[in-house]
Design a protein that fits this description.
There is one protein chain. The protein has 453 residues and is an alpha/beta fold. The chain has 2 domains: 159 residues, Aspartate Aminotransferase, domain 1, CATH 3.90.1150; 263 residues, Type I PLP-dependent aspartate aminotransferase-like (Major domain) (Aspartate Aminotransferase, domain 2). Helix content is 39%, strand content 15%. The chain has 15 helices and 17 strands. The strands form 4 sheets. It has a 7-stranded mixed beta sheet with strand order 4-12-11-10-7-5-6. A hairpin with a 4-residue loop joins strand 2 and strand 3. Helix 9 packs parallel to helix 10 and helix 13 packs parallel to helix 15. The relative contact order is 0.15. The structure holds pyridoxal-5'-phosphate. Pyridoxal-5'-phosphate binds next to helix 7.
């Protein structure tokens, strides 16, 4: 039955009502942000009600150039005007050839020099599936090493290596997933915090893998995020990443780094692996590489290319517009120094957030890298754990998100308990916009904390 249209209500309200009636109960962002964007430009989104918002969600980190950047629009228009076929499975096109060139130019040179790319179905999760499958094929093994707090997507293999127990699934091929502790100084899995927690994580990993009675058969791969995003914006220390690289290399375990959210300058390096200088065996890419259109790929060392034709196929692997928009985005980010900009503006924003922590006791922790920032909200009246971390306050986080929206700021939550405010503004954010974001955020946190039930 089609819902009746309420002609008296503003258009946005009617759309929201129809969405509630017609779309699935699994709606997510639509619940957090009951708005109907009608126009968007850069960091600004305009709702059907005429209200304007500063967008710090950026399509979950996708829009590194913000909405409708002229360079992206120009690439799309040029492609459309040129009459290129828009959908071509994985058949060669000039746009795909150019995107591949732009991607290989942007990748760490030593990695790119001996890399192969496989275009996947257009979502990060499919590229995660491809990476796991590739390494299963290459090693003849089935299991995987994955980390607490990890998020890798919503298809079976990606869910298997994701941390959240609410959505777990088994690994295809019957492989076991061994869960390892990801370093998280504020809520340290070892209860010690700081650098020591990361050292213990590395020592535990190494000893577990070498223990003949440790219960872990040789895995097909280790998969990790250099900065966990959905897990609550938790950057891994560079030393820890280097140790993971050594541990995996010494034992012939391919290392997959999931750069779906961290790629294309987000963390203040073109790729998050560049902070530590490690060279993974495979990188999983999506979100920003499509320049705001759907695109996903796995890039890997050519010696792992033991796939048969059709080993990881899919209809939508040749999105011409995404290739054009993505190539333009990769080149623009590099040419305009936006990676450096992400680093400097991100550091300035992080410093101001850390300053807020001084007089807002509900801010338990501020962390992040580049323009991937997280603010963990806590209950100051709660009992601290052995590292001094206070209990997470997800209810407060929801109130802060609402208060942000009322003030014209789009900020989503993440983290183990859904209590981390996640800032993912475009790399094109101006100094004035960064100040406005922080002013509004501070005001929202203060107001929501005052309104504590
Ligand atoms: C690190 C990481 N990997 C994989 C994914 C899954 O990507 P998608 O939602 O495009 O399937 C995400 C999505 O947020 C992610 O953050």
């Amino acid at each position: 039955m089609s819902p009746t249209v309420d002609t008296a209500a503003p258009a946005g309200d009617a759309i929201l009502r129809r969405q509630r009636i017609r779309e699935s109960a699994a709606r997510t962002y639509a619940r957090s942000f009951p708005i109907v964007p009608v126009r968007a430009n850069g960091m600004t989104v305009e709702g059907a009600d005429g209200r304007r918002y500063l967008d710090c969600l950026s399509g979950a980190g996708t829009l590194v150039l913000g909405h409708n950047h002229p360079v992206v629009l120009e690439a799309i228009r040029r492609t459309l005007d040129g009459g290129a076929p828009l959908h071509l499975l994985d058949i060669a096109t000039a746009e795909k050839d150019d995107f591949t060139t732009a991607l290989f130019e942007a990748l760490p040179p030593a990695f790119a020099a001996r890399a192969r790319v496989h275009f996947c179905g257009p979502a990060g999760t499919d590229a995660v599936e491809a990476a796991l499958k590739l390494m299963q094929t290459a090693t003849g093994r089935s299991g995987a090493l994955a980390f607490t707090g990890a998020y890798h997507g919503m298809t079976a293999g990606a869910l298997a290596v994701t941390g959240s127990v609410a959505v777990k699934a088994p690994l295809p091929g019957g492989g076991e997933v061994t869960r390892l502790p990801y370093p998280y100084p504020y809520r340290c899995p070892f209860g010690v915090g700081g650098e020591r927690g990361a050292e213990l994580s590395a020592a535990y990993t190494e000893r577990l893998l070498d223990d003949p009675a440790g219960g872990v058969t040789a895995p097909a791969a280790m998969i990790l995020e250099a900065v966990q995003g959905e897990g609550g914006v938790v950057p891994a220390p560079d030393d820890w990443l280097r140790t993971m690289r050594r541990i995996t290399a010494d034992r012939g375990i391919p290392l997959i780094v999931d750069e779906v959210q961290t790629g294309v300058g987000r963390t203040g390096a073109m790729w998050a692996v560049e902070h530590s200088g490690i060279e993974p065996d495979a990188m999983v890419l999506s979100k920003a590489i499509g320049g705001s259109l759907p695109l996903a790929a796995v890039v890997y060392r050519e010696d792992y290319d033991g796939w048969r034709p059709g080993a990881h196929t899919g209809t939508f692997r040749g999105n011409t517009l995404a290739m054009a928009a993505g190539a333009a985005t990769l080149r623009y980010v590099a040419a305009q120094g936006l990676v450096e900009r992400s680093r400097t503006v991100g550091a300035r924003m992080a410093a101001r957030l850390a300053g807020l922590q001084g007089h807002l006791p509900v801010i338990g922790d501020v962390r992040g890298r580049g323009l991937m920032l997280g603010v963990e909200l806590v209950d100051p009246a709660g009992t601290p754990d052995s590292c001094g971390a206070l209990p997470a306050d997800p209810a407060l986080a929801v109130r802060v998100r609402e208060a942000c929206l009322q003030r014209g700021l789009i900020v989503e939550l993440g983290g183990r308990h859904g209590a981390v405010l996640r800032l993912l503004p475009p790399l094109t954010i101006t100094d004035e916009q960064a100040d406005a974001v922080l002013d509004q955020l501070a005001d929202a946190v203060e107001a929501a904390a005052r309104a504590q039930p």
